[in-house]
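So, does this match?
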Amino acid sequence: VDEEEHAGHVHVHTHASHGHTHGSTELIRRRIVSQVLEIGIVVHSVIIGISLGASQSIDTIKPLMAALSFHQFFEGLGLGGCISMAEMKSKSTVIMATFFSVTAPLGIGIGLGMSSGLGYRKESKEAIMVEGMLNAASAGILIYMSLVDLLAPDFMNPRLQS
């Protein structure tokens, strides 16, 4: 902080605080966005994995496998971009990548376990309601993240608005 006196007035100058604060706030926002996106993707991957693991018809397994492959690919690209922009530490990046990598197989294992002798009936009213609620929750998280946290900042960019 520099202080200068001119004709009885004191002027205070601060150096580099505005840019640092703004940059720090933006970095924190990006880190939170990447972590919330990770949560949404993890929940979504487990749910799709459970659906795939519980499926007993090849007609259901084929499209679910295709959907899971595309979901994992594009969600991985999106999440990787967010993590990169958030400048996460190496340890955090490895942890997030590990969670992303194991959740779909974990869901498949849960689905296989549920469908093979635990009294799980996929067509039961309870199973349909639980699956619907979990799907709705994960879809809501993903839609919110894509619209509010990923797309909105791009549309608010002054270069795009001019």
In short: The chain has one domain: 30-155. The longest helix spans residues 17-54. The longest strand covers residues 2-6.
